[in-house]
Amino acid sequence: MNRATPRHLLHYVSGRLRLRRYLKKPGDGRRQPQIPASALLWALLIGQILREASFHAVEALAHSTARRTLRIATSFCDDTLGYFTERLDPAPTRQALLSLLRGAKRNKAFDDCRWIGLALDGSGAGWRTHQGCKLCRPQQNAAKQIPGYQHSLVMISVVGTSLSLPCDGEPYGPGDSEYAAGQRLLRRVIGSLGKRFAQYVVVDGGFATAPFLHTAGELGLRVVARLKDNFPELFTAAQQRFPCGAPATVFQHGADRVEMWDAEDFDPWETLHWEIVRVFFYRQHKPDGKVVEAYWLTNFASSTVGPAALFRMAKSRWEIENQGFNDAKTRHGLEHICHHHANSLLIGWLLTMLALTIERLYRLRYLHRGKHRVHDSAQLLLLLWLSLSRPCAANSS
Length: 397
Ligand SMILES: [Zn+2]
Known about the structure:
The structure is a single chain. The protein is built from 13 helices and 10 strands. By secondary structure, it is of the alpha+beta class. Among the domains are: 6-91 and 337-387, no CATH class; 219-304, no CATH class. α8 links the parallel β5 and β6 (222-226). The protein is globular and about 70 Å long.
């Protein structure tokens, strides 16, 4: 683990993760660049991994005595990053992210699980009091005034595998919607990864509309979705049926005891072209006496997926909340607007996801090999920062 340095990380990203070509040619759209795109891209990425994502902070790192240790080829000012990210094509970064997923599967990073899931969720990521880009979504208050503008995106992440890997994002501006963006995102990701990469998609109730569920089906995915009062008829039918009598199954989930009621003979609502709707209800008893209850729907047949596996799939949705948006916002500044321009925002969000995915593969699958114990992300962060105080070895290449 004490090998963890920016230099070692760059070597890992270029070689093992096969991103050398992407780091060299990330889709630069500048006409006559003075500073190489590779220097700026790596500076943004290592800044993200060091949790110093603002353009001012990245500029400060590039001007510091640690620049050589950070493997940032040259210094630059923060305006250069604004100009660069306005013009950087997002497609190569998206492809880089998906190539990491394909590599992870090829290298059996997910092998100890039977089901690979994808979770989608939307969130706000940046606030401005004045409109300034085409992604600005006006937010109206109760008095019908517009106090500010929100920026929003849908994120998709691999879940249910013990390795949460955010892998793409789709912004949605005014006139667009979370669930339309979610469909575009799912089509793009499965179009690139293929229909056999994952087996299910898990979503909150807001996505559980017939068009979204049909899109998932076309893409070869089963759906596990939260059932709330957005489908009053089905929700009422489910509430009338569950919980009633003894649970169909009782099992342990860690320290929690879970009671589950489950049936696959519910009628689909009028616009949903499913043969069956399986609805399940769980009551999860925590050791402190707290009880968590929820209704869910799925088109997995009970002969394919049993209750305990289905429960874990439903719970895997939390990964996009916790290891996705929460980590991205609290540790990587997802909500900070470095440069108020639609493409710059998108590039910032995608680089945050790339940094999260690279950090997890490096820490949990690469440094963890052999007898090395798993370190948490704060420990890796500290080692990377401490390495900056050591003199950089002369480059003999
Ligand atoms: Zn804006």
